[in-house]
Amino acid sequence: MISIEHSLVEQIKAGSGFLRGTVVEELSDGNPSFSKENVVVLKFHGITEEDNRDVRADLVAGASPEVIFMVRAAIPGGVLTADQYLALDRLADQVGNGTLRLTTRQAIQFHHARKTDLATLIQTLNQHLVTTLGASGDAVRNVMSCPAPLPDRAGVGLGAFAEQIADQFRPRTRAYYDIWMNGERAVTAATTDEEPFYGRTYLPRKFKIGLAFPQDNCIDVYSQDVGIVAHVRSGNLEGFTLLVGGGLGRTHGRPETFPRLADPLCFVAPEDLFEVLEGIVGLQKDFGDRLDRK
Length: 294
Hints:
This protein is 27% helix and 17% strand. A hairpin with a 2-residue loop joins strand 7 (226-233) and strand 8 (236-244). The protein has one domain (8-287): Sulfite Reductase Hemoprotein, domain 1. The protein has 8 helices and 9 strands. It has a 5-stranded mixed sheet, covered by helices on one side. It is globular and about 65 Å long. With 294 residues, it is α+β, with helices and mostly antiparallel strands.
């Protein structure tokens, strides 16, 4: 057994009861914010607690900051139906500041939501088969793909692969559904009180996966933790080249952190893709750095 030191964040994840924490209790406690432990847990639910930067300068000395929330919806492949988009557009007028923000990772964010808005927001999203589970936090994030519906791509189904990968790595915990939807499950995903793949502490960091075509790099495939490039001949999918180790993040003043482009790893047949991805993500889960966090 390898002994691995854990940061405070790792300890919070391990003790959260598979992302349950005490979120239910704090939703009704009258406090506009959550405890620091639940702030960590809620990131996996797609929820980030913030303070309103626009009013910081106007705060009276000693006054508490204005607490607001960002809620991120994962949109695998960046594809929504017209009805789904219209539902999200209406929802933006009911909660937050009336805006929808499209992210560079094909997700959609609601900003300036209040604590009392969160349940309504997440319930409405799930009623339209959109989830926030795993859109943030230390898990496989929103899976990207190049969505342009060009004729030569019709038989490849890259978007379907993005959906399947998203399902493969979506957290299985029932906590999300118990907290926000009284146990009802609208988005397709097996749920349990355990995490057969992730375990109690999930991943050491977020993990990014994206799929692209050789002639269309709209997702910046070399910036992904795992980039997947389709090989297509005469309209038929032959397999994928996998690229690993990409990322553009860095921390100012820490030269040991730096952006890098992914390296080619191997070619895989379509039927082997999911098993190979599980091996790569599992390697990061078991051996990634769980101590060095900001």
